[in-house]
Amino acid sequence: MTSTAVDFEAIKDKQRAGWETGDYPRVGNTLQIIAELLVEAADVRADQKVLDVACGQGNAAMAAARRFADATGVDYAANLLAQGRERATAEHLPVTFLEGDAEQLPVPDKEFDLVLSTVGVMFAPNHQQAADELVRVTAPGGKIALASWTPAGMVGQLFKTVSKWAPPPAGVQPATLWGTEEHLATLFGDRVEWVGMTKREYVFRYRSLDHFSEWFRQFYGPITKLAGTLSGDDLAKFAADLAEVPRAFNKADDGTVAARAEYLEAVGIRH
Fold first, then answer.
1. Neighbouring residues of 67: CB distance < 8 A, sequence distance ≥ 6
2. What pLDDT score was predicted for residue 1?
3. Cα 8 to the chain's mean position, in Å?
4. Which one of 41, 124, 127, 203 is most buried, counting C-beta atoms within 10 A?
């Protein structure tokens, strides 16, 4: 199926409804270290103009602002932006938050010295359009820095488990392709010179396998929305399937979860 046959706007409407369900920042806030590592890998400098795309509750924007960059975050989920503003206010960080679509960023061409996304832009259904937008808003010689879950890692397995209960829309590429060097080369071509490609691991830490399942069903918007459509034996089976996801990746031997989740940290220079 060609991209012209896919109704990306309808898909994004459903995605937005998913992210606005539950309370994603309860999960997303635990991923702050990914953003801190990404801005260091990108060598962000004070007073640079930085854009955090699909920012959620603002992890990367806030990481850049802590380093005295001029940081802006953009996302299409209003509730996540509201929490980002609350966090920035509490930490006295001057971050600007804008409501907008990663595939149609509400900012001018060549406006930013550094464009970031931590496990955010990868969820845009039209991968090529999202990549084109990242290039459009980055100044020549500026950097694009991305942290994306890999297909083979724990989060990739989580998405495969969820897809058994809610198959993804036809014609939409898996989000975890952003976690592969080959897909980034296809999306960006010679417009970006990738100067750093590093496989890293984030460790998900929970009280138990069941606690992991419960937390994601309660707070991770798309999973929360899916769980809300299930009941009885189906809900119990879905909960058990989620609980199994971290098992193979768990390095803890005390009954808790310390599950390694691989992601690709990519830093490139925009030509």
1. 39, 44, 45, 46
2. 37
3. 18
4. 124
* pLDDT per position as a tens digit, 174-214: 999 999 999 999 999 999 999 999 999 999 999 999 999 99
Question: How far apart are the C-alpha atoms of 53 and 133, rounded to whole Å?
Answer: 10
Q: How far apart are CA 247 and CA 242, in angstroms?
A: 10
The one-letter amino acid code at 269 reads: I
The whole-number pLDDT of residue 69 equals 98
CB 266 within 8 A of CB 184: yes
What is the rounded distance in angstroms from the CA atom of residue 73 to the CA atom of residue 88? 11
Give 267's pLDDT tier (boundaries 50, 70, 90): very high
Domains and CATH numbers, the chain: 3-203+262-270 (3.40.50.150)
Handedness of CA 20, 16, 49, 45 (dihedral sign): positive
What distance in Å separates the CA atoms of residue 147 and residue 238, rounded to the nearest whole number? Answer: 28
Question: What is each CA distance from 128 to 14, 131, 157, 169, 183, in whole angstroms?
Answer: 20, 5, 24, 17, 10
User: Would you tell me the crossing angle of helices 59-66 and 78-90 to the nearest 10 degrees?
Assistant: 20
- Look at the pTM and tell me if it is higher than 0.85: yes
**Rg of the chain over all Cα atoms, to the nearest angstrom:** 18
CB 22 within 8 A of CB 224: yes
